[in-house]
Specification:
239 residues; 11 strands; 22% strand; seven-stranded mixed β-sheet; binds magnesium ion; four-stranded antiparallel β-sheet; alpha/beta
Length: 239
Amino acid sequence: MLNNRFKVIALDLDGTVSQHKSKLNADNKRFLYQLMEEYQVVFVGAGTCKRIYKQLEGIPVDIIGNYGMQFSKIMNNEFTLLTDYRRKTDREKIMSNVKTLRKEFMLEEVTGELVEFHDSGVITIPLLGTEAKLADKLKYDPQRLKRRRMLSAVRKLFPDYTVFIGGSSSFDAAPRPYTKLYGINEYLKRQGMCHDDVVYIGDDYGRGGNDEDIYHSDIKFLCIDDYRNFPEVVKEFLL
Ligand SMILES: [Mg+2]
């Protein structure tokens, strides 16, 4: 039995509790609410807290957004953004690095822009461009093999960022020191807690995935490979 050992259950959202960028199904929602009765539940995501909150349709949980650059809580029944770090981005340098990368790997076709700049300073590099069709994106690199092959080259080009394989056909880069693990560490520190107090559940624990740093830490990590198994995986935490 794992229950009673942990105070906090930290969750990835896309691929873990829901389909990518989709609302929760009824079963997963019911199990999430049951967890919330017994544990402090925090979502840890790559997107903004607001986006995650909307996707959760207002379920009142703590949210660590943008790889730890944002933190939100529900206070007096209101979504409240308590942390919102921003980092200045050298857009020219990033564009020129992306062009170097595209040349090196002979990436040609692009629809829309080469880079998406987020307000936080996080950047997304969509290899097919910002306006590529969803169907094309989904079939581009389903096993992530192309991006794993490129990963060390991308990391070398962006030493000031932590680079992840994101979405279906892109790389995500968060300014250092922000990562999901960094966000969890700050969250625990604020409450006088440590790694032993938390269990993390995520789907992106493979090489280059944005849950990978937590997976390799001493935090108890439960893997999910299909979000429909969420009830099965969390059952052991419930009395
Ligand atoms: Mg995920």
